[in-house]
């Protein structure tokens, strides 16, 4: 899972004066050729005059198109600068810290200013003639309009700020300001001193906004609060040990104490609200079909609807189960000699997976084994010429920060495109605090084979590698406003790509476990749609995950929690993966013997984290 929230004035200036794209030049050449061909049907002297006219007009047409592209680039840069001024949190996640001292307070006035900003820029982008833009700029425009329309829909229709208390969390930006070396430590601390000032007002606004919260999001907010407070305590600790003067250190203590009190008051408020839910009722976490389809359209940006994607997932699930059934038969005598095969397909596959899952690392070596595997995966990708990797890009495996707890067991925190040189964190939830039973359940889930696939997904050639490429994209818009389905889809595709290259020695054990893992991505879509749209119960969900998708009870319980506190995101894995696979096959058919897998990968990743359908348009028109 990727958690980066998906950029320097020089970069923007360079973009504003970038040369026209190849697509623009091709379009001009094609127009010239057509004009010439048409005119050849007239008298010879007319043909000659026309040819001369076209020869003179062609450069003017190209220049005009370039001017339109430069105009749009300048407009999009103006938008980004304005966006960072009103949304410093997104700016920080993108690696831009100019406005980091300001914390946006989501009160009525703040929300009204957001809506006014959205309306202003939708109007300005609406005046752009997309037909006159090159493919790069045209697709940038589509992404910006989708982002703004989606933001307006979230504020006016979904209104999550009224029912999701966990959406109010100040810790992430504080952590990044403190630990990212974009400026000297004293300067960063003074930025934090200013930002922390607004935290009491921030949580006052949160309390005022919450109308009818869900119990699940309320409990999540309560669970994450100690992590928020730990970040505040750490900020003050660093400040007191710094070279700041005595007055500044005193201010830090006072403001951090006020911020800690604000978080405490928020938790007290939420705890009281949660108690009242038993008698006063509460909002359901299920968002329903209408909201789900709309959110899917804005977030996933697929060529299919949510319902169509759900139907595709059901078909893909059947194909996977048939293959897993065959692999179980193939290995049965090796691992379960003398044991009668169950007639039930789920039982047979489950028995084989259960037997193989006995092979896993020791509890105390879980995180160390993840660290050990990363260099091996990098060496494999380079040796088999699958992708060019940056040897200087930093990846650090760490324990998942407490303020991010309760959503995913493993994730990537990557720097934004403005500071691609910063460290990427691979967050892993250690098993230190788990009971022996829970730890064993997790270790069996992430057994010898699946732990490798997890690292392929999260690190190399999955999220980590993809986001390095995204930060080098010539389109800063596509890097910043990344598409979750493309990001997650690439990570799932990376698993398939590695096994196709021979990783795991084509062993049936690896392919069975890969199929189990891929079934997990498919099941994510089925689960998410079934829960939020079709009303699937907890009992039905656990059965789907354990008996039908062969996940451990611990993993299934965590996934049930996740589907309650999120919506649509779980569909991104299968949606993106299936579209990438379809695009690869399409390019293979189009290019024939000229198709090169490494070139396909690097071209695909070179467009940033754009929706797959947008990347397809750019690749075809290149």
Mean pLDDT: 89
Categorize the overall geometry. Answer: globular
Distance between the termini: 31 Å
Radius of gyration: 27 Å
Structural class: mainly alpha
Which parts are unreliable, with pLDDT below 50 for 5 consecutive residues or more?
2-58
Helix content: 55-70%
Strand content: under 5%
Biggest β-sheet strands, sense, barrel: 3 strands, mixed
Number of helices: 26
Secondary-structure element pattern, one letter each: HHHHHHHHHHHHHHHEEEHHHHHHHHHHH
Could you tell me the number of beta strands?
3
Order of strands, main sheet, comes to 1-3-2
Would you mind describing this structure in some detail?
The chain has 622 residues and is mainly alpha-helical. Helix content is 68%, strand content 2%. The protein has helices at residues 9-16, 22-39, 44-86, 88-93, 108-126, 135-158, 171-179, 185-196, 199-209, 215-240, 246-280, 288-300, 306-335, 345-356, 366-383, 436-445, 448-458, 463-470, 476-480, 484-500, 508-532, 538-546, 553-565, 572-591, 597-605, 612-621; strands spanning 395-399, 410-413, 424-428. The chain has a 3-stranded mixed sheet with strand order 1-3-2, covered by helices on one side. Helix 24 runs parallel beside helix 26. The two termini are 31 Å apart.
């Amino acid at each position: 899972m990727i958690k980066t929230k998906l950029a320097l004035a020089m970069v923007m200036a360079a973009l504003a004066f970038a040369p026209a794209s190849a697509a623009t030049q091709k379009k001009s050449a094609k127009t010239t050729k057509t004009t010439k061909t048409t005119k050849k049907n007239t008298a010879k002297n007319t043909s000659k005059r026309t040819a001369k006219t076209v020869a003179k007009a062609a450069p003017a047409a190209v220049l005009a198109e370039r001017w339109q592209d430069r105009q749009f680039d300048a407009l999009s840069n103006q938008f980004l600068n304005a966006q960072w001024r009103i949304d410093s949190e997104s700016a920080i996640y993108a690696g831009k810290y100019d406005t980091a001292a300001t914390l946006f307070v989501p009160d009525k006035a703040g929300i009204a200013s957001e809506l006014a900003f959205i309306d202003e820029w939708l109007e300005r982008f609406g005046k752009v003639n997309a037909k006159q833009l090159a493919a790069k700029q045209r697709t940038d425009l589509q992404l910006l309009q989708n982002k703004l329309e989606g933001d307006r829909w979230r504020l006016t229709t979904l209104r999550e700020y009224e029912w999701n208390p966990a959406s109010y969390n100040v810790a992430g930006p504080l952590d990044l300001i403190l630990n990212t070396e974009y400026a000297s430590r004293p300067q960063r601390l003074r930025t934090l001193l200013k930002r922390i000032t607004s935290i009491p007002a921030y949580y006052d606004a949160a309390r005022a906004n919450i109308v009818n919260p869900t119990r699940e999001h309320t409990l999540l907010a309560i669970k994450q609060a100690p992590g928020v407070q730990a970040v505040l305590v750490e900020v003050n600790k660093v400040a007191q040990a710094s070279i700041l003067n005595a007055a500044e250190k005193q201010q830090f203590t006072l403001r951090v104490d006020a911020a800690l009190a604000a978080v405490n008051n928020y938790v007290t408020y939420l705890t009281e609200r949660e108690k009242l839910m038993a008698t006063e009722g509460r909002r359901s976490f299920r968002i329903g079909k209408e909201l789900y389809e709309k959110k899917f359209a804005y977030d996933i940006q697929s060529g299919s609807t949510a319902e169509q994607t759900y139907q595709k997932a059901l078909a893909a699930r059947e194909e996977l189960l048939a293959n897993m059934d065959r692999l179980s038969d193939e290995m049965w005598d090796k691992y379960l000699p003398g044991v009668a095969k169950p007639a039930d397909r789920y039982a047979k596959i489950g028995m084989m997976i259960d037997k193989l899952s006995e092979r896993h690392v020791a509890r105390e070596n879980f995180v160390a084994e993840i660290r050990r595997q990363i260099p091996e995966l990098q060496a494999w990708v380079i040796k088999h010429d699958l992708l060019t990797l940056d040897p200087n890009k930093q990846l650090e495996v760490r324990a998942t920060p407490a303020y991010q707890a309760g959503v995913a067991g493993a994730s990537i925190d990557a720097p934004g495109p403005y500071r691609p040189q910063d460290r990427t964190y691979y967050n892993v939830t250690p098993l230190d605090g788990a009971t022996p039973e829970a730890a064993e359940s997790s270790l069996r889930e992430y057994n010898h084979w699946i732990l490798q696939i997890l690292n392929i997904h999260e690190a190399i050639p999955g999220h980590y590698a993809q986001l390095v490429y995204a930060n080098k994209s010539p389109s800063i818009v596509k890097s910043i406003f990344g598409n979750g389905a493309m990001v997650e889809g690439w990570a799932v595709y990376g698993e398939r790509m590695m096994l196709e290259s021979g990783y795991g020695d084509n062993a049936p054990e690896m392919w069975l476990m890969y199929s189990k893992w891929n079934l997990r991505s498919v099941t994510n879509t089925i689960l998410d749609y079934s829960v939020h749209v079709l009303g699937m119960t907890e009992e039905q969900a656990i059965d789907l995950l354990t008996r039908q998708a062969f996940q451990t009870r611990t993993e299934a319980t965590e996934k049930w929690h996740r589907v309650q506190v999120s919506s649509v995101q779980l569909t991104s894995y299968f949606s993106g993966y299936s579209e990438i696979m379809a695009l690869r096959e399409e390019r293979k058919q189009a290019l024939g013997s000229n198709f090169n897998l490494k070139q396909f990968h690097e071209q695909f990743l070179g467009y940033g984290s754009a929706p797959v359908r947008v990347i397809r348009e750019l690749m075809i028109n290149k």
